[in-house]
């Protein structure tokens, strides 16, 4: 008699424990109260090689989960990028060295190189604190999404049935299990099983650029070995990424015919070796020498593919994320970043829906926001990869790509390569109607960093640190100056309005108080630390002493200040800045448009969240 | 037949595991290769109350041991100090609010409040990584220092015999043990057993100022409850120290007659209670109200004593440190800071002597440096405590102390209250002969912070972070600009000289290379990150790629730069700045005085350290 297949239930089942899956799992586990399950078919996590770059926006996002500290401590930082080009005497020569991150609002004006395993460790350790582990080696065998509309629209139903197989290493036997899930996230890589199971196609092409990658500790006289360096030579291109400890990674352009299997048209690892890749690198770097001081830690070769999945979601119940829905060239350092930012975008939405706070329709914005971004990224990548993989112009070959051409592309690419350019278009959660009341903030982009001084204790606080990824919308109330009598009347009137039961602050809150459960409120006053008394503003603006900030410098006079000016906000009236749980600006509004703020939240929040299943 | 008393040997036996003892134990354990033993008679460490203030210099010192991060995360920070004085209508009123730390070079422009137990935990955790634990409850019964001059002068001898008793909690029996030690550090508090055992007297007086202390979570409408606040009222003085979490500490001036036992002349805890102290506090704070929101976490009363031990060392084999050699008022936040800085000063000296690097005569500088500091501190404390404990001037009482008088003292006290004023006078390890070649550095004071940019990777580096308390002297070579041809000749000549076997760099180094074992070398070039090639300077100046810094801003243009100007060093010649292992400047010298640098080190370093017992 066969044993019954065990069955279990999960709010969210995540398939794949790479960066996209781990970001999702950690965010849901940290949110609390959600039954999360994460599986991976690899028996253990990777420990060397693979993706290794964190761009500045991703560092900000990791910081919002309390996970950046470790990356900042362990990783190698790239502040500048050096350029080398063909010299007149043969070989290459130094051309210029410029800042790698040119977006002025970057909180972290550098990129971090750190192997993927270390980044995954940070997530795994954080998940462990929330009692969540990756279940491995477990692979999915079958997935079935109910077609019953009632089930699909009921928050209490588990419309997805997934059959899993656990591999027993000792006996090689597979143990089956059935999981019933409310939501499934397929973060299972470029060859995504989830994507294929639902017949989602990948749109786009393979290029014919072939690249090799080697990780090693180098012995070299190349002066920019600790900078990111982009090298164009007559022998092909090469990029250097300085890594943690003494390591570097080389991306080496290879000539396709030597490394591609003519039968399959695919790169063939068996036709290659780290020695062959290094041989090309040595020629490209001439007259500088380079050789490994130790064993090659990791290596690979690849052909650049540039593809986006035709859809990112099935019925807003099954989502795909990360490499499962976009592939592009690794040298612009986007792969892992785009992947983690996919699920960063998704996790809070699933959480708010599961809690009964938000209407399930907000889940549609996952595809509209992230697929648009992925398409833009691929378009950018096509231009960038073509320039970087193209032939270098020399005095002998005037048809090649000039340094000026590449450099121009490099500079305009900064929004993408830093991640700061992510801009979500108008939707139920992005309302740019009153954009003009905060001129230097862009609705749909991430809140920009700014240091304010806490009124009660004069401690300088980076506003980003007050916008943690804790599933709450942040209501920043820029109260303006609170000195003149006329302003006080306006401020008191607003306090009364916000305290009324019809105000959004009260309407979406269980206990009738501006509670911390749905919103986090921060008040920013144009005042100074020497004489402002934070007890002088109405109670509704200061749910706790730590929530009142001043637009002033710190005691040294060197940190903070000019915040209203930097953000382009008037200090003569009240302005609302609504920051989504993922750090993106959902709306800005002047006090006169308070009704629009009410309507913004009314369009997707559910007034009574007592009915939630959580 | 009685059992034989067990005997053991230790390089250093530390008696007392308060802040002074723990700083010493951790420093010696981290140094490595030293047999350290630390005992304490309390059965467990304290967990609430007691000392709680870290001044900015102590934070820098903790940072040099890698221990500041936790204090910065867990502690409450005091950026400003508020002053309240008698109002014309009775009660008190706000007078002014000013920065608490006014020394412009403070790296951490604030003080930290955190209970002593948390600070001790940081040491205990760090010690555990070096396999050192506090042995407790163990108390010393007898100590004997050999009078044999040969033994006293031999590094291989153990001239101190200490008899210890371990209390067995179960049986109440004492188990004896004899420890033979090379050095003993008595960090056993104000009633020091070690001090008394050697008949060392305390010079100074008891005041008649009586103060009460309460730690609690307050309910109050006092606007400066999260600032350090100094309150003078007609009812006495009061100081508020905001603490970690929501707690505050109140220091409340009490009228002596109510709390002093007339028989002993000492304060009597039995005559007092937290309620009585709070009753006084409430009157002092009128018209503001204050009451505890929770139980009183800790409380005490004390009379201020201001005393310094007549000597800090016996034969440079037994040292006393911390409260054992100085007591003063707690409100200037000096006690724990002075204590930790005592053993911070001592530990590297003992380490270098034990390793055979330095002549034992450097141990004499412990007393000369720290006793002088303690005396200055007491002198300052007498003036400060008298002002703070004195009567406040009011319109009715013109004889009291005015706000202006107190405020002036407060401002001039900043060197002491921040710890930045610590200035060690000339000695074998402090040589101010060439002071003029680095105008804004003070030989004998701590190296001032400055951000430089690392040449190889353009990463901004705070020079303090390159001066860890790792027992090594740091040789900072300010090479000046390296652009002109004429400078290169000078730089190459210096490189040859430093590479010669008679150079101090080679002379005190076991392997004939500028090794990391006795010195750490950092080269600072007046160059810019866009085009400087760190491989262009001679090898002796760059033992590792990370050791070459540039005096330039970081990529944002907002951090670093102007270092030569800030330190008052010329960029047209070479200047040496020698930083002691404890972060204090031992010497500055122009390249022309290289011979004086040789002589400085020759005066206390031992050329051959192969003969060490370690």
Automatic annotation (TrEMBL), chains A, B:
It comes from the Eukaryota. Residues 422-607 form the Phenol hydroxylase-like C-terminal dimerisation domain. The keyword Ribonucleoprotein does not apply. Gene3D superfamilies: 3.40.30.20, D-Amino Acid Oxidase, subunit A, domain 2 (3.30.9.10), FAD/NAD(P)-binding domain (3.50.50.60). InterPro entries: FAD-bd, FAD/NAD-bd_sf, Phe_hydrox_C_dim_dom, PHOX_C_sf, RIFMO-like, Thioredoxin-like_sf. GO terms for molecular function: FAD binding; oxidoreductase activity, acting on paired donors, with incorporation or reduction of molecular oxygen, NAD(P)H as one donor, and incorporation of one atom of oxygen. Residues 10-380 form the FAD-binding domain. Keywords: FAD, Flavoprotein, Oxidoreductase. Belongs to the PheA/TfdB FAD monooxygenase family. This is Phenol 2-monooxygenase.
């Amino acid at each position: 008699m066969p044993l019954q297949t065990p069955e279990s239930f999960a709010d969210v089942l995540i398939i794949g424990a790479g960066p996209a899956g781990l970001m999702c799992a950690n965010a849901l586990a940290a949110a609390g109260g959600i039954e999360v399950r994460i599986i991976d078919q690899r028996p253990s996590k990777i420990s060397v090689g693979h993706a290794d770059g964190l761009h500045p926006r991703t560092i900000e996002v990791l910081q919002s989960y309390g996970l950046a500290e470790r990356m900042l401590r362990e990783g190698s930082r790239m502040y500048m990028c050096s350029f080398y080009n063909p010299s007149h005497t043969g070989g290459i020569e130094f051309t210029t060295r410029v800042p790698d991150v040119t977006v002025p609002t970057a909180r972290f004006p550098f990129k971090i190189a750190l192997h993927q395993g270390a980044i995954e460790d940070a997530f795994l350790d954080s998940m462990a604190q929330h009692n969540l582990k990756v279940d491995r080696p477990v692979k999915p065998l079958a997935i079935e999404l109910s077609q019953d509309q009632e089930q699909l629209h009921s928050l209490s139903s588990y419309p997805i049935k997934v059959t899993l197989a656990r591999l027993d290493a000792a006996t090689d036997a597979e143990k089956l299990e059935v999981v019933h899930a409310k939501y499934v996230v397929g973060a299972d890589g470029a060859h995504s099983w989830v994507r294929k199971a639902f017949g989602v196609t990948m749109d786009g092409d393979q290029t014919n650029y072939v690249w090799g990658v080697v990780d090693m500790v180098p012995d070299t006289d190349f002066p920019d070995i600790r900078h990111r360096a982009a090298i164009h030579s007559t022998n092909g291109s090469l990029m250097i990424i300085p890594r943690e400890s003494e390591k570097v990674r080389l991306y080496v352009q290879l000539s396709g015919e030597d490394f591609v299997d003519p039968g399959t048209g695919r790169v063939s690892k068996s036709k290659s070796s780290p020695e062959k890749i290094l041989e090309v690198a040595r020629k490209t770097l001439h007259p500088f020498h380079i050789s490994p001081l130790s064993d090659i830690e990791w290596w690979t070769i690849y052909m650049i593919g540039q593809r986006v999945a035709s859809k990112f979601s099935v019925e807003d119940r099954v989502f795909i994320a990360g490499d499962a829905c976009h592939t592009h060239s690794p040298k612009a350092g986007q792969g892992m970043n785009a992947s983690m930012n996919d699920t960063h975008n998704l996790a809070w939405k699933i959480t708010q829906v599961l809690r009964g706070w938000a209407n399930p329709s907000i889940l549609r914005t996952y595809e509209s926001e992230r697929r648009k971004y992925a398409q833009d990224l691929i378009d950018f990548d096509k231009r960038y990869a073509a320039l970087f993989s193209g032939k270098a112009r020399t005095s002998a070959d005037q048809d090649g790509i000039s340094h000026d051409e590449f450099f121009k592309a490099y500079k305009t690419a900064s929004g993408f390569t830093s991640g700061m350019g992510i801009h979500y278009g108008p939707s139920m959660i992005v309302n740019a109607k009153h954009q003009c009341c905060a001129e230097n903030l862009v609705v749909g982009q991430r809140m920009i960093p700014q240091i304010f001084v806490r009124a009660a204790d004069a401690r300088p606080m980076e506003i980003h640190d007050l916008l943690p990824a804790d599933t709450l919308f942040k209501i920043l109330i820029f109260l303006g100056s609170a000195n003149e009598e006329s302003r006080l009347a306006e401020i008191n009137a607003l306090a009364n309005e916000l305290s009324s039961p019809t105000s959004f602050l009260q309407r979406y809150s269980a206990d009738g108080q501006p509670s911390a459960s749905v919103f986090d409120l921060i008040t920013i006053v144009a005042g100074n630390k020497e004489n402002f008394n934070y007890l002088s503003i109405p109670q509704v603006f200061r749910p706790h002493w730590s929530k009142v900030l001043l637009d002033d410098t710190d005691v040294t006079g060197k940190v903070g200040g000019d915040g209203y000016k930097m953000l382009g906000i008037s200090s003569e009236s009240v302005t609302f800045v609504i920051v989504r749980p993922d750090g993106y600006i959902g709306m800005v509004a002047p006090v006169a448009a308070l009704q629009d703020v009410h309507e913004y939240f009314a369009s997707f929040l559910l007034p009574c969240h007592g009915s939630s299943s959580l």
